[in-house]
Amino acid sequence: MRKILSVMAVISVLFSGCTGGSGSRRGDNKLIILHAGSLSVPVKELAEVFMKENPGVTILTEAAGSLHTARKITELDKPCDIMLSADHFVVSSLLVPDYASWNIRFATNEIVIAYRAESKYSLIFRDDNWADILLKDDVIMGRADPDADPCGYRTVFAAKLAEEYYGRSGLADSLLGKNTEYIRPKEVDLVALVSSGVIDYMFQYKSVAIQHGLKYLELPDEINLSSPQLTEQYETVSYMIPGEAPGIRTEVRGDYISYSGTVLDQAPQKELAMRFFGFMLGEEGTAIFRKCGQDPLVPAVADDTDAVPSSLRKFMAAVPAK
pTM higher than 0.90, yes or no? Predict the structure, then answer.
């Protein structure tokens, strides 16, 4: 009798977990979002609010460098409903058109140099001497991996643009060749190194510095990749990221920083994903991004407005002609 009761109890639990108020199967309200590391804080907040407003929905999130995130989809067939990238280039070049049909830019950012109050020379760290301080022998700096993370290749862009801006030949190679043992797969991996004093400074997104309460030095717009008006200048620098096959590399050129995302064509929960994406682009979503130091693009910008589902078009504008 005791065994029979135990079996009945298990069956009862299984059936109660497989149905909700609407009679849906277990897992029908489970949304999977793969996203850039620098989106961890706002995505967590977005997920919490969305789940609160939609009882019964579970959102699973996973952070990684945007290039690695895209390859989880294209090479590992990892289940995913929504992909949110730190660079629109990643979605446009790796996911569209084989895995997704559209790509929407929804937020901006800028490259800064983040540090602690206790970092070496922090009291004299200024916009007119930052490069000299970073290059000191007793200063340790970190950056993200340009082969894995847009923040990494954007750091390469910033270094090259700084060399041009200051007229200092060799500056980019000097900065990028220093402390290479402190290159990490994604930019948020550097936060703990700065916070614990392992490194003094890091090239970082402004939003990440704000979210983690770090000090930061803002760089000129000509260097920090923040201004759409300076796109032509940013495009003068580039980096060769790993391509689709071993030994093959693809050129990515400088551009103003724009986060973008899409709902995959084969998303397991496509309708729910579309609802979340609309929530993210709406007033509540943009307020969360703004609070987290990532200025929302309002209206959002689509690579191809005609390809975007009609339910999302109210949030965006067409890409301006170049």
Answer: no
Per-residue tokens: 73: 């989809």
Domain 2-108+258-318 has CATH 1.10.540.10: no
Write down the CATH number for the domain with range 111-240.
3.40.190.10
Contact 145, 184 (CB under 8 A): yes
Three-state SS letters, the chain: CHHHHHHHHHHHHHHHHHCCCCCCCCCCCEEEEEEEHHHHHHHHHHHHHHHHHCCCCEEEEEEECHHHHHHHHHCCCCCCCEEEECCHHHHHHHHCCCCCCCCEEEEECCEEEEECCCCCCHHHCCCCCHHHHHCCCCCCEEEECCCCCHHHHHHHHHHHHHHHHHCCCCHHHHHHCCCHHHEECCCCHHHHHHHCCCCCEEEEEHHHHHHCCCEEEECCHHHHCCCHHHHHHHCCCEEEEECCCCCCEEEEECCCCEEEEEECCCCCCHHHHHHHHHHHHCHHHHHHHHHCCCCEEEEEEECCHHHCCHHHHHHEEECCCC
**Token pair of 9 as six digits:** 């109890």
Give the whole-angstrom CA distance, residue 50 versus residue 214.
Answer: 28
Query: For residue 16, what pLDDT band results from cuts at 50, 70 and 90?
Result: very low
Asked whether this chain's domains 2-108+258-318 and 111-240 adopt the same fold, the reply is yes
Domain limits of the chain? 2-108+258-318, 111-240
Least confident of 173-182, 272-281, 313-322: 313-322
Between 243 and 149, name the one with better pLDDT: 149
Q: Return the higher-pLDDT residue of 221 and 23.
A: 221
